[in-house]
Amino acid sequence: MTKHAIEHPRRLVNAEAMDELVLLEVELMHQEAKLRNFGRLRDSLTASGGDATEMYRRIELRRGEVVKELRRRTPAPVSPDASKMPSHASPHGSLLNSSVTPPTLGPDISGLHFGYSGIVQMGRASEGATIVPDTITGSIRTYNLYDDGRIAFDGDIHADLATTAKEHFTTHSWTNLIPFPAPVVASTFTYRLKVNVSANVKVELPVLQIPLSWLPTTFWTWVAVGHTENFVGQEVAVNSFAGWPLVADLEQTSYFVNFIGTDLILQRSFVVKAGQTPAVALARGVAVALQSAARVWIDPASEIAAGINVPPNGYIEYGAVTFRYDPIPPLIMG
Predict the structure, then answer these.
(1) Shortest CA distance to 159 belongs to which of 181, 133, 179, 140?
(2) Residue 105 burial class via C-beta count within 10 angstroms: exposed 0-12, middle 13-18, buried 19 and up
(3) How far is CA 57 from CA 18, 47, 60, 64, in A?
(4) How many whole angstroms separate alpha carbon 246 and alpha carbon 131?
(5) Which helix (H) or strand (E) is 229 found in, with range?
(6) What ranges do the domains of the chain cover?
(7) 125 and 174 Cβ atoms separated by less than 8 Å
């Protein structure tokens, strides 16, 4: 399927590869939903003289193609290089064979260091990528980008009828780069935030539609992250998918229906050396799957927010991200 991407100025976060992966994940879930609900389609095809076996084979074939493409595009997990990880081993071999002597700290350590924690505030989100197939008119749009990181979005998306494609997928994303203060000593860095979604959506389906179980119109929101241990102005790639705060199958209504997503908790850890400045790349996006001739309206009141719950009342502080440094113990010299 031919797609075109709306270009945006160069930015410090690159999420374009993740946008394409998300569309493949969306189509995979779409195909699997059709296989799970194939019983209704089989009955409909049998009643109309269609070949249910051939249709099932075509769905399985397309699902296999999507899985193969996902595997090709998804980078293999990279195991940490043990030679670059801080070592806690004694330089004198096994502790069981070492003499008992008072320990001293290494020459590069002037004393004991304790970890610390804090909160940083993310700024206004930037435009990510917009991927729209040629068979769709309109797009998911930015309505407002708030200083506290909240994203308000809307859209008017219409899938063409005069096309051989029966399914149409589109996505739009936004990104944030979140820098953190540097640790005094080599430490394990942990950050935490949550993402929540509220969307108001209305759908118009074609009069002679294929049953919803066959080609549902579905609305997703998604989150992905990336990071660098030492940010010095370089571009940071979003390369780790985090989850779907909201997935909703849409039915035709004459009014907007409000969908509230579940809170998606993001917590990641990685090692940061002394004096380095870690930064996290956060991508949040919306994706829609439509059947031919379907139309989806998204009300401007729709919003993707990120932040933390503040005790004791638990209200959300938008844009806030908590972090913690746990120092890695220095070598013990005998």
Answers:
(1) 133
(2) middle
(3) 29, 19, 5, 11
(4) 19
(5) none
(6) 12-75+115-329
(7) yes
| Maximum C-alpha span of the chain | 87
- The terminus-to-terminus CA distance of the chain in angstroms comes to 66
Among 194, 189, 193, residue whose Cα is nearest residue 278: 189
- Per-residue model confidence (pLDDT) at position 165: 58
Nearest partner of 280 among 209, 207, 227, 240, judged by Cα: 227
Contact between 295 and 137 under an 8 Å Cβ cutoff? The reply is: no
- pLDDT of amino acid 172: 94
Return the pLDDT at 53.
80
Task: Please give the model's pTM, rounded to 2 decimal places.
Answer: 0.79
Looking up tokens 């051989």 gives 164
Q: Which residues of 252-281 are buried (b: 16+ CB within 10 A; e: fewer)?
A: eeeebeebebeebebeeeebbeeebebbbb
**Pair of tokens at residue 303:** 């919003």
Cα separation, 159 vs 46, in Å, equals: 27
What's the average model confidence in pLDDT over 227-236?
Answer: 93
Token pair 């959506």 in the structure block, residue: 201
Q: Is the Cβ–Cβ distance between 246 and 221 less than 8 Å?
A: yes
Q: How far is CA 176 from the centre of its chain?
A: 12
Contact 189, 171 (CB under 8 A): no
Q: In the predicted model, what is the mean pLDDT of residues 51-76? A: 82
Extract the tokens encoding 286.
């919306």
From the CB of residue 36, how many other CB atoms can be counted at a distance below 10 Å? 9
Is residue 284 within 8 A of residue 306, CB to CB? The reply is: yes
Please name which of 318, 299, 268 lies closest in space to residue 141, comparing C-alpha atoms. Answer: 299
